[in-house]
Design brief:
This protein has about 700 residues and is α+β, with helices and mostly antiparallel strands. It is built from 14 helices and 37 strands.
């Protein structure tokens, strides 16, 4: 996940190392006349427009004599094609193509990283393959062919690193195995990586695309797929069946670089390949084993953090990120290929329960750690949600998932925190992200363009979802999760505020950058948001052993709510658990716990009464019924039930309206019905309801 001037992470290791800005040269590489997304551009019949992605492409020399690196017909066709990684918007609305990192050799045009990388080459190939398959575009077939040739040149073909992939390449074709700043693995083809996983994605879809159209090229791609699978068998797959401990949680040890996010992108390619070559047992076995590992990171459930999400990193049970979030799409594909309904159940829980809550809380943020800490949103995260929703809706027939897909895709057309279009279908230009405060990054690099166009291809293939998305151009309300900080509360007894040197623990964030260390007999009273509805309270305390400057917790904390001058009991939470650190980056375990009782509207605060020792961070305030309202030429109200009981909700929309109810798998429960303004509806346990004008 790389976007200039927004928060950036690459892969699991970087993700858990913290948030860093990617610094790149601002020297122009080539100008373009493409303009930035228009605020209210008319929506064409087809949303896919590959003009900007075409602009990012450049010819790449295939240098001969580089040990371990060659590709299909390299001697006969000595150039291939790759996209520049970044495109900086100029004051006149045009773009300059830019490489990664500062320029280190102006004479040769070298960057500290490079002009092109395997991450973007592989995913750009997927875009062109899908456009060729869906629309029959001849130029997309050509671009897919050239990108796959470029990608396989980066794959090491022999020697001890055979099958692994070099990440960076300079404009003149020179490989840069050790970029600055250093990225792991280093050299980049010395072990498996995110870019190897994405190479598998492209190889799988490439083989399926060219199998009949160009059997000779498809055979070459099959050989390279087997080369990739062989190196994965020597590395992560050699650990199949083994588990590790992360903060007391047993997790699979055989995911690619320990990441379900990376592994999911490989699974998309393995599924495509296995469907086209059903007799390939090595690929099918890899597909089944990796899919099992992804599914093993399903966590929580209705009312329990993270609400059924498929967590992305094996070494953190308290970190979810939207980017590299293809797990639901991957498990849906694998479920169909392997005829394994259990995989679909895990994907559906993520989409129908977690994603509905995510949308009502503002959308696919870059980081819930475990509170929504990094609220930047980028196309990579939006596309990951959208592709999963559409794929699962197709696979299961769950109409509620299609409805959620329309709400999610509306992000591109203005229903986002900035209130501006994030994509212009008339030019193919997108944006590189929207910060939590609504600031827009108007650059339009390869990753953002790729995932935006993957979304547009999916929407063009689903016209009803596209119509819904393009008619919803602004967010009216997003009344979901909020956070109340312990350190801002009223403390009594032996309790003090602690401010760690860094809010980031290595796998989570101390919400607000501080916490309360409290002992037996102390109380912490935390104010609730004014005007809140009925809510659930999810306190967050460090449940791990002492370490990283924290004390060991012990005992329990009892909670009450102040309601009309009386204290209403809510239940209790643990101050510590048997949670050995294991492979986690830190012993700190900031895991939300859900109190059993509902806090009624009108409660002004909650109070923690400590028995033992606790490091109390914050409380998540989760409405019993969260609400998302989108508007434009149409409107949509989404009501999400966070409990395992049927919930009642008074409609906010002016009537008459059509109400459709869905269960916790996104399946419709009974016929849609008409309701008047202010009517009361019932929402299924863990489910949701949509309300549209009649």
């Amino acid at each position: 996940m790389r976007n200039r001037t927004t928060f950036s992470m690459r892969g699991a290791a970087a993700a858990l190392a913290g948030l860093a800005l990617v610094l790149g040269s601002t020297l122009p590489a080539q100008a373009a006349s493409l303009s930035a997304p228009a605020a209210a551009a008319p929506v064409p019949a087809e949303l896919t427009n590959l003009s900007h992605l075409d602009f990012l492409l450049d010819d790449v020399p295939l240098l001969s004599g580089v040990p371990g690196h060659t590709t299909y017909r390299a001697a006969q066709e000595p150039t291939a094609r790759a996209p520049w990684v970044y495109a900086d918007r100029q004051p006149d609305g045009s773009f300059h193509r830019v490489g990664g990192g500062p320029v280190t050799d102006p004479a040769r045009g070298w960057y500290a990283q490079g002009a092109y990388d395997a991450d973007d080459i592989s995913r750009a190939a997927v875009v062109y393959l899908r456009d060729w398959k869906q629309n029959g575009t001849a130029s997309s077939r050509t671009n897919a062919y050239e990108l796959l040739r470029s990608l396989t040149y980066l794959q090491t073909a022999d020697g001890p690193n055979a099958g692994n992939v070099v990440l960076w390449q300079q404009h003149d074709g020179t490989l840069n195995p050790s970029a600055i700043p250093k990225e792991l693995p280093d050299p980049s083809d010395s072990a498996e990586s995110f870019w190897l996983a994405r190479t598998v994605w492209a190889l799988g879809e490439g083989y399926a695309g060219f199998r009949s159209a160009d059997p000779a090229f498809a055979s070459f791609l099959a050989d390279r797929m087997h080369l990739a699978v062989a190196t994965l068998q020597r590395q992560s797959l050699s650990k199949y069946g083994q588990t590790a401990i992360a903060n007391g949680v047993s997790v699979p040890a055989w995911l690619i670089v320990g990441s379900a996010g990376a592994t999911a992108e490989a699974v998309l390619g393995l599924s495509a390949y296995a469907n086209a070559a059903p007799g390939d047992d090595a690929v099918k076995t890899a597909l089944a084993r990796y899919s099992e590992g992804i599914a093993d990171l399903s966590s929580g459930g209705v009312g329990q953090w993270p609400f059924g999400a498929l967590l992305p990193e094996a070494n953190s049970p308290t970190f979810w990120h939207a980017w590299a979030g293809m797990q639901p799409a991957a498990l849906t594909a694998a479920a169909s290929t392997l005829h394994d309904s259990s995989l679909q159940q895990k994907a559906t829980a993520d989409l129908a329960v977690f994603t509905a809550q995510l949308l009502a809380s503002g959308g696919p943020d870059n980081g819930w750690t475990p509170t929504p800490a990094d609220r930047t949103q980028i196309a990579y995260g939006v596309d990951s949600r959208l592709e999963g929703l559409i794929a699962a809706s197709d696979a299961t027939g769950a109409g509620g998932l299609a409805a959620l897909a329309g709400a999610q895709a509306a992000w591109y057309f203005g229903a986002n925190r900035a209130g501006v279009a994030a994509y212009d279908p008339s030019t193919g230009v997108c944006i590189d992200g929207i910060a939590g405060d609504g600031t827009v990054n108007h650059n339009c690099g390869a990753e953002s363009t790729i995932h935006t166009e993957l979304s547009m291809l999916a929407l063009d293939a689903h016209p009803a979802i596209a119509r819904a998305a393009t008619s919803l151009t602004r967010t009216v309300a997003a009344d979901g999760l909020t956070v109340a900080e312990a350190e801002t509360g009223t403390l009594a007894g032996p309790a003090i505020v602690r401010t760690p040197a860094s809010a980031w623990t290595g796998s989570a964030n101390w919400s607000g950058g501080a916490y309360v260390e409290a002992q037996t007999g102390s109380t912490v009273t935390i104010a609730l948001p004014a005007g809140h509805p009925d809510v659930r309270i999810l306190p967050i305390a460090d449940l791990g052993p002492a370490g990283d400057g924290t004390v060991a917790g012990s005992g329990t904390t009892t909670w009450t709510a102040a309601v009309g001058g009386r204290e209403v009991p809510l239940g209790s939470t643990d101050n510590a658990r048997n949670a050995p650190q294991g492979i986690a980056p830190t012993p700190v375990l900031l895991l939300p716990q859900t109190l059993s009782a509902i806090v009624p509207a009108g409660a002004t605060s909650v109070t923690a009464r400590v028995s033992g020792t606790v490091s109390l961070d914050a409380v998540i305030v989760q409405p019993v019924v969260s609400h998302l309202a989108l508007a434009g030429t149409a409107s949509l109200d989404l009501y999400v039930n966070s409990t395992d009981q049927t919930a009642k909700q008074k409609l906010r929309a002016a009537g008459p309206v059509t109400v459709t109810s869905y269960d916790s798998s996104g399946r419709q429960t009974g016929p849609a019905r008409t309701a008047g303004a202010g009517a009361e509806i019932r929402i299924q346990p863990g489910g949701f309801a949509t309300v549209v004008p009649r």
